[in-house]
Amino acid sequence: MNDSRTLSTAALLLRLFLGAVWLAHACLTLAAFLAPGIAVFLAEQGMPTPLTWPAGLLELAGGLLLLFGFHGRAASFAMLALLADALPGPAGNGYALFLAAVSVIHLLVGDGAGALPAKPVARRDAAPVRA
Fold first, then answer.
1. Three-state SS across the chain?
2. Could you report the per-residue pLDDT of 46-91, keeping only the tens digit for each?
């Protein structure tokens, strides 16, 4: 029952789920940064507070790239680099480990159905471009 159609659909669902989770996390990160007292919370967690905005923006961009399937594997790799700091941290609830595992699975499986092409698709009827 493991044919290319089911694998492509499974990869699509994985990519959409992962992108939605990263977008939700980005919104939480960016909204929490605006709330008073977040610097104290981040300092207690051992995180450098000046990196909150760049991390939130990276999560936002990565989540959007994943949702659209545009260079999704590169986005998953970037998210893994972002998670590298959170994995040994005091989270303790397995959230970062789960995101890392799903990102690795996405790296291995790919974007699946409905992904945007990384390169523009050349039309067959287009005349060749001469320099």
1. CCCHHHHHHHHHHHHHHHHHHHHHHHHHHHHHHHCCCHHHHHHHCCCCHHHHHHHHHHHHHHHHHHHHCCCHHHHHHHHHHHHCCCCCCCCCCCHHHHHHHHHHHHHHHCCCCCCCCCCCCCCCCCCCCCC
2. 766 777 778 888 999 999 999 999 999 999 999 998 887 666 665 5
